[in-house]
Amino acid sequence: MTHDNPSPVGALTRRTLLGAAAATGVGALTVGLTDGAAEAATLQGSLPASVDVVVVGGGISGLVAARQVARSGRSSEGSPQLSLFVVPTDSPGLTWQTIEAALVQPEHQFTVFFDDVPVGPEALIGTDGSGLRHVFSGLNPERITAASISNGISLYALDKATAYANERTVWKGVPIGAHQGVAHPLAECYIAVTQARLLAARAAELFDTGGDAAEASNIAKFAAADASLTTLDQAMQTHGGNGLALEYGLSDYWFLARMLKTAPVSREMVLNFVAQRSLGLPASY
Ligand SMILES: Cc1cc2nc3c(=O)[nH]c(=O)nc-3n(C[C@H](O)[C@H](O)[C@H](O)COP(=O)(O)OP(=O)(O)OC[C@H]3O[C@@H](n4cnc5c(N)ncnc54)[C@H](O)[C@@H]3O)c2cc1C
Q: Measured in angstroms, how far is the CA atom of residue 205 from the centroid of ligand 1?
């Protein structure tokens, strides 16, 4: 896609993506499915004739424009041809509901409904018929980003915990960090986050150099999410009761760290990926 392309194909997409790049607009990607039957039908290529828009959101973040995958035709073999589109939020048939969530963050989450939302060539992202390929190409960087957020939470929590453990004394003026019961769990957290950061760096390097980053991105995301939950928990424990006080700046990260265990890909789906792709074990689904 070039900026001066006079064709209507992708014109809306170009405006939207350039707006996002210039920080004058925000986009949200929805690839979740609320309906398992639709998922099965899509992936098996036996789409019901009445379904025009196939992929609809689970929860999505920061809704201003939504992207969706919709059927744009059928292949010569008769299987559904799926394409990726950008959809303005004032499109007819596009509605959403806010999901009240425990997360403390500037973004909000929404359940989005697409009811026969019209899409045309001006809204096409990438190549017609390659929608799923385009969606999947975004998943690895999203996982690397998620890993980096988790790793940031870990480093932040460790910083807070070590400062507190050096300062806080209980009995005889000895800082609590001198006790191995406090120090060793923090040392283990440091080892875990160091491993997770190396994995994330490796995944990013593979992605940036055009390699196959799927396994590395999944593993990095998994390791980082687990490490951040353990580390944040240990940092709160180090603070005793103060770990729960908002003033100490730890507990308000809890649901963000917890969310990253589930999204953008759940722990179990990473284990499925590793079991099937890395170890060659059979799939259960
Ligand atoms: C704050 C937040 C923001 C989000 N933002 C977006 C967004 O912007 N765009 C978007 O598309 N999505 C978004 N999501 C959705 C997110 O990607 C999904 O919630 C996540 O991938 C899990 O999918 P699910 O909720 O459909 O769980 P389900 O698929 O319903 O799974 C439920 C549970 O069962 C487990 N499970 C399911 N199948 C298997 C299996 N075969 N083997 C073992 N375990 C299994 C899962 O791991 C999970 O623990 C967001 C979610 C949250 C919480």
A: 26
Q: How far apart are CA 134 and CA 276, in angstroms?
A: 22
CATH number where 201 lies: 1.20.140.10
Q: How far apart are CA 35 and CA 54, in angstroms?
A: 9
- The rounded Å distance from CA 101 to ligand 1 centre is 15
Number of domains in the chain: 2
CA atoms of 195 and 222, how far apart (whole Å): 11
The residue whose CB lies within 8 Å of the most ligand 1 atoms, and thus the one to mutate among 33, 55, 64, 268, is 268
The enclosing domain of 48 has a CATH number of 2.40.110.10
Smallest CA separation from ligand 1 atom 34, residue: 268
Q: Does residue 80 carry a pLDDT above 80?
A: no
Specify the residue with its C-alpha closest to ligand 1, atom 21: 265
Task: Return the minimum-mean-pLDDT range out of 9-18, 81-90, 175-184.
Answer: 9-18
Does 175 share its domain with 264?
A: yes
pTM for this entry:
0.83
Lowest mean pLDDT among 10-19, 30-39, 45-54, 253-262: 45-54
